[in-house]
User: Fold this.
Amino acid sequence: MRYYLNCVNCVRRDVLPDREKIRARIDNVVSWLRENQIRPAAIDVCRSVRSGYLPKEAADFVEQTFLSRLGELYELEYCNLMGD
Assistant:
């Protein structure tokens, strides 16, 4: 079974979203996971900095906030395959 989450609102790449908007989007994803009782066997977090989608100034905040919120739902075991 596959799950897809579509984001209706586009993000402008030339504007850094404020932290409250970032938190709200992460909250939406986490709420969806909780409400639908999604229990993934693995979670792959892809950083979109190299593609330019996510401004590098926001990357650490987004990653740490997202992983923290996922940690509220799941017991996480971290594995870094990229070495960075």
About this structure: Helices lie at 19-35, 56-73.
